[in-house]
Design a protein that fits this description.
The protein is built from ten helices and two strands; from the N terminus they run αααββααααααα. The chain is mainly alpha-helical. The longest helix has 22 residues.
Length: 236
Amino acid sequence: MANPSLVLPEIEKPGRMTIQEYAYVRLRHALMVGSIAPGVPVTIRGLAEAMAVSPTPVREALRRLSSQNALSVLKNRRIVVPPMTAKRFNELISLRCAIEIHAAERALPHISEAIIDRLVAIDAVMDEAVEAQDRITLIIQNQQFHGHIYRSNRDQLSMPMIESIWLQLGPFMRIALRHVGTFYGIDRHKEIISALRNRNLDDLLRAIHADIHDGVGWFDESALEKILGPEQTKSL
């Protein structure tokens, strides 16, 4: 059964943005922050009604998001966020580490003090979100923090791959954060900022790796079993 009470977060629509692009960006944002739960089917008509647009731009948005592995189209033409399993979760985290460490290494020579100052500001917003247990802001700002680093390399080619992984993890992370009493033991972002200021590549890569794993560090076998169910965690 499709979700009868589908609510997608509002986002600002710039005046020059087409309806097609708006539908894609808004649905992508909803997936990033976990507004559509894994395994819950939605329909083109339901999504169109939730965004107050016609079905045509929704179909194009779904095509693009399906190509990024963020959505699956079923035979009955309903759409689902793929269910998360322990194997898939571990694969996504491993991929995220490998690609983001690569992106960070390539970005380091391009990091300016202005970029670092921007990262400090983003980290301050995240600190407030942690204090308020504002999960949506935390997810969004964490992506902004990492993306700001990697995009500083104008020749980078990794962001589409990284964003595909974020899209696939987003729905699960929203659920998982409900099971977490505290978000972080150590603020790895401050370690990343320090490494960037000192232009220390080894420290930067260690901090990026630790940040990704600390972000899901609570999800050991027992935590994953609680979130995913025991049948999906047997392979851990």
